[in-house]
TrEMBL record, chains A, B:
<dbReference type="InterPro" id="IPR004364">
    <property type="entry name" value="Aa-tRNA-synt_II"/>
</dbReference>
<keyword id="KW-0067">ATP-binding</keyword>
<feature type="domain" description="Aminoacyl-transfer RNA synthetases class-II family profile">
    <location>
        <begin position="139"/>
        <end position="566"/>
    </location>
</feature>
<feature type="binding site">
    <location>
        <begin position="532"/>
        <end position="535"/>
    </location>
    <ligand>
        <name>ATP</name>
    </ligand>
</feature>
<dbReference type="GO" id="GO:0140096">
    <property type="term" value="F:catalytic activity, acting on a protein"/>
</dbReference>
<dbReference type="InterPro" id="IPR045864">
    <property type="entry name" value="aa-tRNA-synth_II/BPL/LPL"/>
</dbReference>
<comment type="function">
    <text>Catalyzes the attachment of L-aspartate to tRNA(Asp) in a two-step reaction: L-aspartate is first activated by ATP to form Asp-AMP and then transferred to the acceptor end of tRNA(Asp).</text>
</comment>
<dbReference type="InterPro" id="IPR004365">
    <property type="entry name" value="NA-bd_OB_tRNA"/>
</dbReference>
<dbReference type="GO" id="GO:0016740">
    <property type="term" value="F:transferase activity"/>
</dbReference>
<dbReference type="GO" id="GO:0004815">
    <property type="term" value="F:aspartate-tRNA ligase activity"/>
</dbReference>
<dbReference type="InterPro" id="IPR047089">
    <property type="entry name" value="Asp-tRNA-ligase_1_N"/>
</dbReference>
<feature type="binding site">
    <location>
        <position position="227"/>
    </location>
    <ligand>
        <name>ATP</name>
    </ligand>
</feature>
<dbReference type="GO" id="GO:0003676">
    <property type="term" value="F:nucleic acid binding"/>
</dbReference>
<dbReference type="InterPro" id="IPR029351">
    <property type="entry name" value="GAD_dom"/>
</dbReference>
<dbReference type="InterPro" id="IPR012340">
    <property type="entry name" value="NA-bd_OB-fold"/>
</dbReference>
<feature type="binding site">
    <location>
        <position position="480"/>
    </location>
    <ligand>
        <name>ATP</name>
    </ligand>
</feature>
<keyword id="KW-0030">Aminoacyl-tRNA synthetase</keyword>
């Protein structure tokens, strides 16, 4: 019976075992041959000794890296001087009686354990890159996470229901991937950006508790943490409210963290309104593992004779500052110039700064602060010698974007982020709409099916920007892990919502008429949430490359370098689909 | 705390409970109002009595079918004369204290419990059709089946790994669904027909045990039991052989049948070679729940003076017969004519027949049988009075197709199929190739990665039609439930295989070069299987309509009647994808 390497322990010393795997390395030493045998579960040293088996040694002489072999031999304790503390099996080795080559290997384009191989070469030979224990362990973690979520939801009476991949294109949201229909000439399916409408229809059908771990698709320009296809943990529930949904998700995350990381999280998770998050952290997904909060100095700014600050406030903007405690001496003029360059990428016109030395403010703008101003600032910001203060004065949007991102950058640069800490946080009370300057209309901040707070419904027509939503995001260490909401389940409210989004009645009926009709036949109150599984795995695995958590990822240009996809297809195929390629010269 | 209706039992008599659900029916009787309240788990009767709560009764008066309500009331035992044996809660009812209308409903286009609604109307209002307990129970069974499979494979150390949906088009196999690329002009992804190549690459990467429950896609003309997207239970394993694979799958099915149906199956499952299946049952997926086997009379046919039989054999064909025991008097001339019409759809030129009466053969062809022939036939077929014998004389292909299908039809017509019996069967030793007359070349009977039996490898060049494969199908009650094989893991054998399939070296390298290259870096022996999940659910649920097992199925023309998909898209969308619609006038 074949064993995994990790099953071989000192307890088996003296016993004969049978192993299969890949040869990671061969070393010849003093008439003996040593190979490191790798399987899915680890690594073990196998020794070939002519006094034990001449024929095994003979075979071993032909063995090269990445050969697949089957080995039988006796488990021996190593001499303590030969212990290898880097591997769990480092105190033992296998004295080979027999070895069989199951498959030969030519010299691979890179050594499996080589971490320096370029990403493109790794992707082209993905099956070799995936031999790295690091990547295999991430895929195992992903499986554990999946399994933990499923176990939890199964036990809570949720039903895993599949929804279509060949779906319908809708104009709200990101760009769709399209699939031409052969049967319906000139028509197209779309790959779903989420199963949102289907899961709501399942609630209308009375399934009550639905979940799915499901591929979704967005044809957007790729970023480091994006892939054209991504996986969602998708959950929906009837007869629920926001409190119940948050509690359910906290129970789920508690189980996941226990199963996958062996960590006990504390519930309930902290909560923060969207307004508070933006105001204190400058971003809608605060990383609460470190402090460095934003301080609002807008009122203070009006008391000092510094035009940059005053005019920002007078023009409807604000002044906010971050205090970097005790670090002033570590920031040279040049360092601060670099930080200014950084905030400029978020639209700030500049980064004002002060240092606190010998109980006084220092720096180019210190001269604008009179004695009273200085005293006020010391009190407001609880300043101490050694502090560095970084200010941005601008519109609310620019102040928050620049300082919010600067805050995260400073924490990384100053190494303020504790390792192995998982700070979950709910961000609630989101605005229902976002105004898009270019399009000149409101868009749904989450999606058009999110319900407004009951007390804000009357503002839908007149002051949509003031309407808050029954929406909640779960944030982990500064990343949006998932988002959800209590949905609209009333046809007339859904119609109002589309009106606020600028849909004509015709557009609404054409695109979402069936859904509004569906709401008219007995729709239960319902809500749900969707998690980005890939990102969840990234955060738990501690990697910042999304390709590490996907077995066969695409490149930044959405290509598969191994299979060479996408690729050209035959004229016959296009003809059957009633389409032509139309490339602009 | 809200309860499901199924949680309300006589044990709760006298207690106050809280329920939520849909109103299936309202009846007014003697000043009282009765409603049947339906939730995901069942049905219960709620009574409104003016002496208990006038305001609840008042609200109840406004309630209509499919309203969503929240009810609080006391559990009462019914008077035995009022027991409803049709529902588990039939001995009790809820005396309502309060009722709240959560959602109104206008009169639906059909009553939820109406089984006669046309399929098109049901699909258009799928969310109403899905309120039927029958369909909800099937989706629950599907979930249970999924869960059972996952639990089994998780415990056997298999890892659930996702593979890409945006994949590459390959010319072998069925027609692909294509997805135009925006970034790579004029190029297309294909939706996968199966994750076959990916899972083999995962074996090459050393993941050892993989599974996935995964959507696959085929753009084929639809049949009753086909959908454009379908779900596979996909399994692959390294360092395995056929015996191990069959045993693994028998353990899995044992657990599934126990978990889902509460049935203990007997293992090992019966096995039959492909040759035996075709010879005795005429089909490659025999239904072994009944007898009616095919009897080969080719040798006998040469002994009688009946040209139809003799010439079939002389032309390289055969004569086979089915004996329908004791049923001759139930088959009129007209009945047999109908059977003849049936076999003609499978290419038979006619259906010869004999009846056994008073120890003699009767019927139009009886005259061709002399005394010796009669005696021989009686002995060969163990004939008894009352038997009906049905013969087809033709090519092997036609004889098997017509009698194999006739056999299944007779079993259905004569009600020979026992209910609630699940006959699992392995069909092994498949031919590696199928010859396609139209294309004038061999195709892979399963797929090009299936390994030939070791002893047949040398016939690959000269006599491919004689090569048997290490392939196995799992058959349940006459349906192919799944199929798998031990794969090729040797680059040169894989190259031979493509040669036998008529690929030029260039075609092979262009389409599968990366895979053959992959085999050169240490490929473990491996094999796997894939189950059609939708069909598995159909068979366990006892439905013959595949749409019953899918939440949102497509029509026979691959359309979604509810969402109206596929649909036209904007010119802007097409432009971004570098394609034009090209409809022939």
């Amino acid at each position: 019976m074949r064993k995994y390497t990790r099953e071989i322990t000192e307890a088996l010393t003296g016993e004969t075992v049978h192993l299969k795997g890949w040869v990671q390395k061969r070393r010849d030493l003093g008439g003996l041959i040593f190979i490191d045998l790798r399987d899915r579960e680890g690594l073990i040293q196998v020794v070939f000794n002519p006094e034990v088996s001449g024929s095994a040694l003979e075979t071993a002489e032909r063995i090269r890296s990445e050969f697949v072999v089957s080995v039988t031999g006796k488990v021996l304790e190593r001499d303590p001087s030969q212990y290898n503390d880097n591997i769990p099996t480092g105190k033992i080795e296998i004295m080979a009686d027999t070895v069989e080559v199951l498959s030969k290997a030519k010299t691979p384009p890179f050594q499996v354990m080589d971490e320096t191989v370029s990403e493109d070469v790794g992707l082209k030979y993905r099956y070799l890159d995936l031999r790295k224990p690091k990547l295999q362990n991430i895929l195992k973690l992903r499986h554990q996470l999946n399994r933990s979520v499923r176990n939890f939801l199964d036990n809570e009476d949720f039903i895993d229901i599949e929804t279509p991949v060949l779906s319908k294109s809708t104009p709200e949201g990101a760009r769709d991937y399209l699939v031409p229909s052969r049967v319906h000439e000139g028509e197209f399916y779309a790959l779903p950006q989420s199963p949102q409408i289907y899961k709501q229809l399942l609630m209308l059908s009375g399934m009550e508790k639905y979940y799915q771990i499901v591929k979704c698709f967005r044809d957007e320009d790729l970023r480091a943490d994006r892939q054209p296809e991504f996986t969602q943990i998708d959950i929906e529930m009837s007869f629920t409210d926001e409190e119940q949904m948050l509690a359910l998700n906290e129970r789920m995350i508690t189980q996941v963290m226990r199963d996958v990381k062996g960590i006990e999280v504390t519930t309930p998770f902290p909560r923060m309104t969207y307004h508070q998050a933006m105001s204190e952290y400058g971003v809608d997904k605060p990383d609460t593992r470190f402090d460095l909060k934003l301080n609002d100095l807008s009122a203070f700014a009006e008391t000092i004779d510094f035009k940059v600050f005053r005019s920002a406030v007078e023009n409807g903007g604000m002044v906010k500052a971050i205090v970097v405690k005790g670090e002033e001496s570590n920031f040279s003029r040049k360092d601060i110039d670099k930080l200014e360059g950084y905030v400029k990428t978020y639209g700030a016109k500049g980064l004002a700064w002060l240092k606190v030395k010998e109980d006084a403010l220092n720096g180019p703008i210190a001269k604008f602060f009179n004695e009273q101003n200085q005293a006020d600032l010391f009190e407001t910001l609880s300043l101490e010698n050694g502090d560095l203060i970084l200010f941005v004065a601008d519109s609310e949007k620019v102040v928050h974007a620049s300082l919010g991102n600067l805050r995260n950058k400073l924490a990384r640069d100053l190494d303020l982020i504790p390792e192995n800490q998982f700070n979950f946080l709910w961000v609630t009370d989101w605005p229902l709409f976002e105004y898009d300057e270019d399009a000149g209309r409101y868009f749904a901040a989450h999606h058009p099916f999110t319900s407004p707070k009951a007390e804000d419904v009357e503002k839908l027509d007149e002051a949509p920007e003031q309407v808050l939503a029954n929406a909640y995001d779960i944030v982990l260490n500064g990343y949006e892990l998932g988002g959800g909401s209590i949905r609209i389940h009333d046809a007339s409210l859904q119609e109002k919502m589309f009106k606020a989004l600028g849909f004509t009645d015709e557009e609404r009926d054409e695109q979402f008429g069936f859904l509004i009709e569906a709401f008219k036949y007995g729709a239960p109150p319902h809500g749900g949430i969707a998690y980005g599984l890939d990102r969840f795995v990234m955060l738990l695995a501690g990697t910042d490359n999304i390709r590490d958590v996907i077995a066969f990822p695409k490149t930044a240009s959405a290509g598969d370098l191994m299979m060479n996809a996408p690729s050209e297809v035959s004229k016959q195929q296009l003809k059957e689909l009633h389409i032509d390629v139309d490339i602009e010269e």
